[in-house]
Amino acid sequence: MTKITINGREVDADPAQPLIRACHDHGADVPMYCYHPGLSPVGSCRICQVEVQQGDMPPRVVVACRTPVVEGMVVDTEAERAHETRRECLEFLLKNHPLDCPICDKAGECDLQDYAFAEGQGKGRSAEPRRKLEKRKSLGDVIVLDQERCILCSRCTRFMEEVPRTPQLTVSDLGSRSVIETFMDRPLTGNYQGNLADICPVGALTLKEFRFQARVWNLRKTPSTCAECSRGCAITVETLRGGEVKRFRPRPDLEVNQYWMCDTGRFALDRANLPARLPAATLRGQSGLEEADVEDAVDVLADMVGAHRASAVVLVSPFATQEEAAAVQRLAAELGAAPAFVSPPPNDLKDDVLHTGDPCPNRRGLTGLGFEALTAEDALARLADAELAVLAGERVVELVGAEGLAAVRASLRLVVLDAVPVDVPALDVALGVPTHVEKSGTWVNVDGVRRRLSLAVPPPVGVAPLEQTVERMLARLQAAEVRG
Amino acid sequence: MVVVERKELTLAERLYLPEIFRGMAITFRKLFAKRVTRQYPEEPLPTTEVTRGQPRLVVNDDGNIACVSCGLCEAACPAYAITIDGHETDRTIEREPERFDIDMLRCILCGFCEEACPKDAIFMSDELELADYTRQALVYNIERLKRPKSALQARIDYVYRLNDRWQSSSSTS
Asked: What are A339-353's pLDDT values in tens digits?
């Protein structure tokens, strides 16, 4: 650690990191466009200039992202000279930046907008027209480029080179004619394109999927964990007007995903915005499945379980949190069944950046609790021999296979706790559970890192957390035992 | 306790009739004076460009709505009366509202939306009447809010004059 002074305070700075990191770590607000903590610094935007004084030399204004930390340097981020140079840089950056904010999707989370608001002039001094470039340039399926808005910070080109290591973007042409382009206008490829829209400090690179979907200040952001693979990237779940999930964005988590996430996870919105939901409780009645009161359903269930507990199968979804799994484990112990979870086979999305190719986000946690991993075939084979089966958790029916379940003999007492409606002949009781954006809990990722899920969307009316429903069943069973 | 001393009535007052005639004279005179009462529903109230009536959306002369659904009026609205969803267009202006609802029962006619709008797309019209049979009917959708620019021109000019006055009086460096 190196001792330096930032704004009059002596602090310890990491000599391996550029000066801007030390400033940010110690509460000094230094703007940045081209610098990103996850990418190599280039110092192209010059907006992070601060005043530095070393030894006997007079203070100089330097770019904080390209200045190494040196013992004894005295940094003043709020010096008038530093502000003045930053304002001059900003004026040049804004020279060709269109007044698109009312249309731009980045407005509200745009670094350029924020800093122009804080420090910029109300009016431009330039009489020349702004340069006219392509405003709706498609860069593949994920990203759309607005060349007019681009401030040529080159974060995107560095991201493509350094993170997925598939260099595809470049700054082409020279000087005032520079634009961001792909080679021969080929579309971008790869599973990490969505990050370009996050790292772009302005609205030049935006997501096609999110284009004009919402104004960002209307989105409520809840920190959570991605459900698409066992990496469990830290994300924010962003919902519009308390209902629809509009986007997932990565959250910095240096132990798990640094600053990034893959497109598979980013665009898995269908899993969060389910069109049809399983109501709190449905029972097999005279005319098929009928909606029922949860208490009645639990009563029926307890009677049924009491009579058929001889050979029970308890299967949990790989999306179950540790808390849910623990509750299901107690239920399994009560029924004398070995707890197991459905484990779908690895998919072909594995890469050496983030995606693990394993679609079970809590595999490590469940195996740690003593759950056995079962393929869909094994699970169905177990159901064939059982008298009673409890399938608990989001997407458990889909993962076991709805066709496979439909073929199970109708005499099997089948209890399903799922998020989406299900109708198979064997089904007796179905209880609704929340999806992964509607519950809070813990997942253990592939490296054994525990991360929280948070409730971002309220579950449908009457649908209680899975662990609560299971505990209710358990309490009812134990009460029946005492009476019996 | 306060003892109130009543004034004795004069002879003319006690005679009663002279006062009646005096009153009738006033009444008779007013028959020929200029009327101030208005037959309201048939005869609408006069409005000027200063009147802050219900907000309306400007439709430009080319037939396109001026709004780009930036959401600033929605954010500025203190009564949460406005809800906007945008979608993409083929025009140079890439976005326009797909849904633009103003709940007129919530609207307090404060004019913040007009002030917030960066695109001169929403103005306070001179329309003031608000009555219907259901609450839902008073949530105005985009089609009910659209007005040709010419219908709002007086207010637009007034707002521009007002802004100029603000800018010349406030000293922003």
From this structure: 999 999 999 999 999
